[in-house]
Amino acid sequence: MTTPGKAGLAILISGRGSNMQAFIDACASGQLHAGISIVISNNPQAPGLQRAADAGIATCCVDHREYGSREAFDQALVDCLADYRVDLVILAGFMRILTPVFITTFCGRLLNIHPSLLPLYPGLHTHRRALEAGDEEAGVTVHFVTQELDGGPPVLQARVPIIPGDTPDSLAARVMLREHIIYPMAASWHLQGRLRLEGKSAYLDEAPIPANGVQYREDTS
Ligand code: GRF
Q: Does 210 sit behind a cis peptide bond, omega within 30 degrees of 0 on the bond before it?
């Protein structure tokens, strides 16, 4: 729900919505001076939709199977969002590849979270791939969304150690704890006007962000 004077977020999900929940909590605690205007899912069965409705947030299902092309689906998303205040779009486990129809509309106001240390492991099964590669650490990256899949400039990245005996699930759980910290943090930078996209580069407080993103530490703020 948005309040006059507060920024409005749109959150797009496909599944359980634990990152969405982190935004609900961050708005409630005041960490984010924003309200969630709308939660959209492409998947009518997404558990996160109910979670959002239970929190009193407007929800909408735009089922991709009802559209003949990716562009038509994206236009339906744009049309849906036109009814709400949207300062920033948060992709939170949204499992559809977006086209320029959507991406250009929200260029510079569109963030995603990807569960790997980008540019490592774009795409799916990131934790399994990190384990199979014998990596010593894994992590998660918040990045601006551009046309390139999981390829927009990184904003904020958190690392976790890989521990002997880790499985994709145990690693995912460790990474997830970091996801819920860094995603609202990156969004708060944007809402405060500290974070911007220019061309293919991201800037924080007018300084170029390193290629892997700002590296999260306990004292990052
Ligand atoms: C997270 O691992 C996120 O990094 C990825 O999709 C997953 C979504 O999980 N993009 P949830 O629905 O937020 O719990």
A: no
124-143: average pLDDT = 98
Measured CA to CA, the distance from residue 118 to residue 116 in angstroms comes to 6
User: What sign for the dihedral angle of Cα 52, 53, 56, 58?
Assistant: positive
**Ligand 1 site, residue 92, Cβ cutoff 6 A:** yes
Nearest Cα neighbor of 93 from 39, 131, 50, 56 is 39
CB of 128 closer than 8 Å to CB of 101? no
- Reported residue count of the chain is 221
- 101 phi and psi angles, rounded to 5 deg: -55, -40
Q: Decide: pTM greater than 0.70.
A: yes
Give the distance, in angstroms, between the CA of residue 198 and the centroid of all CA atoms in the same chain. 19
What are the pLDDT digits (tens) for 51-101? 999 999 999 999 999 999 999 999 999 999 999 999 999 999 999 999 999
Query: Which residue has the least CA distance to atom 6 on ligand 1?
Result: 93
Amino acid at 182: I
Under 8 Å between Cβ of 160 and 174:
yes
Cα distance between residue 13 and residue 82, in whole Å: 18
Question: From ligand 1's centre to the CA of 191, what distance in Å?
Answer: 22
**Residues 126-155: what's their mean pLDDT?**
96
Q: Which residue has the tokens 């961050």?
A: 26
Residue nearest to atom 8 of ligand 1 (CA): 93
* Residues catalogued as catalytic: 114
